[in-house]
Amino acid sequence: MALSLTKFFISISIVCMVLFLVQCKQSGDINEEATIAEKDSASCTVTKSLNPNGDSELSVLMRNMVHSSESLKELIKQGKLPDQFPEEFLKIHTAKPTDSNTKKATFDGFASLYISNMQTLFKSPKEELTANYNAVISACVSCHTEHCPGPLKKIKQLSI
After folding, report:
1. Is the pTM of this model over 0.90?
2. What is the pLDDT, as a whole number, of residue 6?
3. Are 85 and 119 in contact (CB under 8 A)?
4. Do 120 and 95 fall within a single domain?
5. Long-range contacts formed by 14-20: CB under 8 A, 24+ apart
């Protein structure tokens, strides 16, 4: 009786470990797909939702802004001028956030500063590219300090 009870518990333990490993593997695959979708955007457009409940317009737009900033950073470090202002970024004023409380009264001022700094960057002479690019990133840091501090670490890494 004791031997069969031991075999039972060993069998249950093995089944639990297998289920745990399968679950971990599936979770890893999902995270890998989300990362691939995020990095795979040559056109600076996120194609898949990273959140199970979907992404808001504003979160997708800001993720696209990060991708654009990463590309701009590399161009500027090579001494190249950016091509064309990303018109989709003008939607920052109207894009719906995940949480309606995210957009406080000061949000539109920060958004306008960001757009203004981006427009200046795209008209910059070569010698002012780095300073104007960093002004764009500073506008992002200022806004996120007040409104949504979660991505601040990633945003600060975008500076040159």
Report:
1. no
2. 58
3. yes
4. yes
5. none
